[in-house]
């Protein structure tokens, strides 16, 4: 059972995130990443894949902002997030 207590902001996004993870791992040269026991890999490898996922997600968000999709981002960002008080 996974130890992570993280939850997705957008429900039902697990499949898309897993697909992105395996695509990025494949691009980085880990062709069978979906079948590897991740616990047996060095943290550097898992961090490398995770870091590249983060870079890609940030790039997607920046591109959406640049294309005036702020309304869509604003609607998505409010799902399950607390707004700052102030």
Layout of SSEs?
Blueprint: H1 14-27, H2 43-66, H3 70-77
Helix pairs in contact: 1-2
Brief account:
This protein is mainly α and 86 residues long. It has helices spanning 14-27, 43-66, 70-77.
What is the straight-line distance between the termini?
39 Å
Percentage of β-strand residues = under 5%
Helix content: 40-55%
The chain-level structural class is mainly alpha
Main beta sheet: none
Radius of gyration: 16 Å
SSE string, helices as H and strands as E: HHH
Tally of helical runs: 3
Query: What is the arithmetic mean of pLDDT?
Result: 79
Low-confidence stretches: 82-86
Shape: globular
What's the count of strands?
0
Describe the protein in words:
This protein is mainly alpha-helical. It has a domain at 16-31 and 40-67. It contains three helices and no strands. The chain has helices at residues 14-27, 43-66, 70-77. The longest helix is centred in the middle third of the chain and has 24 residues, at 43-66.
Features:
disordered C terminus; 53% helix; mainly alpha; globular; 86 residues; 0% strand
